[in-house]
Amino acid sequence: xxxxxxxxxxxxxxxxxxxxxxxxxxxxxxxxxxHLYVVCDGMGGSAAGEVASGMAVRTLIESxxxxxxxxxxxxxxxxxxxxxxxxxxxxxxxxxxxxxKNPELHSMGTTLVCACLDxxxxxxxxxxxxxxxxxxxxxxxxxxxxxxxxxxQLRQGLIxxxxxxxxxxxxxxxxxxxxADAVEPDxxxxxxxxxxxxxxxxxxxxxxxxxxxxxxxxxxxxxxTAICQSLIDHAKQRGGADNITCMMLRVIEKPQAEAAQETAxxxxxxxxxxxxxxSSPEPELEPELEPAMDGIPEAMPGIAHEGLDFA
Length: 311
What we know:
Number of domains: 1
CATH class: Alpha Beta
Largest sheet: 8 strands, antiparallel
CATH superfamily: PPM-type phosphatase domain
Number of helices: 8
């Protein structure tokens, strides 16, 4: 008798202070049971960036989980898009309120990129210029769109790639968690293939790594921890001006019988520290949910994008 197979994810993550910064304002976290993964890159000076990124990671994961519990209690099949949007919105409110209450944190904010497994697809949300990439069969494709001044000017045809590369406005972003009372995240959906890999990363890497270079380091047989470290080393060899955080996900399959033997959930937050995490969680199977958005193809088949404003 054939068993039904479900997608699962292996993952690893690492963060590094880089070559020139005095502290690490990046944070990452994950909830292995919910298959939720997040990377944040804080800003605001002194320790404020660390506070913003760590707070956003914790609030996103806790809010996402609370929505799952609430839906289960009410016997609702809540679309994953709604849960991700709610969690990002809640993270924005938490960071914003903390900044308003404490003068020392007044200007803090953070970028955010997150991914969550939803059956046979991966849902990705982002605010700011932290990115998600898909590595499939040796080809790396950027999934997210940067919310940055230069990228938006590029998309509008106002400047060239050469002009953007030479600009001193590399760090100017147009959206951030905690920067305003409301936040406008983008959502992307990717239909999964076995052995697909995904990279969630801060701009401390993407300033120095082109998609083809990411694909080179993310070999099909490479360990995920080794890929993260290799990418960090690549950025540092090119100058490493900023903090660098990489989280790698790999799509695997697990039999239903094994998935049902799930152990206690693991929830981890990594604040602005040198850190490496690796795990191979096995998810509980969830009922199929109809997508809550119509996808607009981006870059390659299987990737859909829609910008959504959580009111």
